[in-house]
Amino acid sequence: MLAAMNGVLGDHLEASGNPLAIPMRLRRGGRALRLTPKALAASVPDATGDLLILVHGLCMNDRQWCYQGHDHGAALARELGMTPLYLHYNSGRQVSRNGADFAELLERAVAAWPVPVERVVLLGHSMGGLVARSACHHAETRGHAWRRAVSDVVFVGTPHHGAPLERAGDRFERLLAISPYSAPFALIGRIRSAGIQDLRYGRVHDSRAPRAGSDASTPLALPAGVRCHAIAASTQRAGDADRAAARPRGDGLVPVASALGEHPDRRLDLRIPASRKWIEHGSGHLQLLGSAAVYRRIRASLARHDRARRDRRGT
After folding, report:
1. CA 148, CA 12: separation in Å to the nearest integer?
2. What are the backbone dihedrals phi and psi of residue 67, each rounded to the nearest 5 degrees, phi first?
């Protein structure tokens, strides 16, 4: 409930100094990590040089990566020897503000890590993918060391080009405001945090439209030199999707094209290679967290590049 409240009202909670506002932390097992060398050595005795940072979505928290008994992070730790850390944050804040703070947090964590960091992988579900993109952008502009260690970013159900439900809410709010009789009810529609409003067009940085009512935004490319992977879900079964003339419908929240970073405007298309895009058929948005097929896809992608890296080192 606290995570949901922050997703809807988190920007207001923070601005008003409300103690219910969630502070950003890296956590393991639901416990915040102190980012000093001594504290990390004690709290993460199994630390490796391969860091996996999991970033949850809107109105969720770090514990919800465990879905129906499965946790992508824990499974990758067992099978690939990665060390998972879970970001816990106020998802109602502006995405770019969360991205900036996330970048600073990772810089501190990597500097204090008990062993040399060789590789950083970011795994973001839903809004978490936008926060990860924003963090990479801020790290590049500030020259953070951790950015150079990023090998892969995996987007799972991330609305790169927005979520229609938020756009529908915005249009409804504008319609209500037209009439002086219905205008007071528009105030109810405005109870949507900055984070939710950023989902309208998948905004990941501070650029805003040049005039009121404009939907224009400045595109931001994916981080350079990083292998980016996009996993989408469709509630349609594979056979039904094959028979459909158009792109299969989305996961109930995010359209397939948005999750894959595809857009008819070449300025906005993220150009993720086809070999790194995949659709999970017969699945919903939250089911991506517990899907065995999604996990196998993530594991295969990360293991393949991990083997190549080890071969180059001769190990």
Report:
1. 35
2. -125, 120
